[in-house]
Amino acid sequence: MIAECLSIPVYIEKLSTNSLAIEKKEPRRMKPEITIRGETDADIGTVNKVTIAAFKTLETSNHTEQFIVEALRGAQTLTTSLVAEVS
């Protein structure tokens, strides 16, 4: 998953001597925190869905990638499976 910075327009009120003016401030970019950790049993369903989605439109795929990952996991030969969390 690719994290994007969020841009939220902010409006402020300025009180001048004769009138109330509303002006738009430049949007502030928020940087989400990304944590990368090892896969847990609770992640398996989501990892499966992400794997299916990642190869869904690939013409050269037989659409069996999720089964390959599942077989490697079942044989305890899946050496690395990482999950990225965005907060």
Descriptive terms for the model:
87 residues; alpha+beta; Aminopeptidase; two-stranded antiparallel sheet; 4 strands; 25% helix; disordered N terminus
How does this structure look, described?
With 87 residues, the chain is α+β, with helices and mostly antiparallel strands. It has a single domain (6-86), classed as Gcn5-related N-acetyltransferase (GNAT) (Aminopeptidase). It is built from 2 helices and 4 strands; from the N terminus they run E-E-E-H-H-E. A two-stranded antiparallel sheet has the order 1-2. Strands 3-4 form a two-stranded antiparallel ribbon. A hairpin with a 4-residue loop joins strand 1 and strand 2. Helix 1 packs antiparallel against helix 2. The radius of gyration is 23 Å and the shape is flat.
Mind sketching the topology for me?
Layout: E1 6-15, E2 20-30, E3 34-38, H1 44-55, H2 65-74, E4 82-86
Antiparallel strand pairs: 1-2, 3-4
Helix pairs in contact: 1-2
Please count the helical segments: 2
Percentage of residues in DSSP E strands = 35-45%
Shape: flat
The biggest beta sheet reads:
2 strands, antiparallel
Overall pLDDT confidence: 78
Proportion of helical residues: 25-40%
Q: How many distinct domains?
A: 1
Widest sheet: strand ordering: 1-2
Coarse structural class: alpha+beta
User: Which value, in Å, is the CA radius of gyration?
Assistant: 23 Å
Say what the CATH topology is: Aminopeptidase
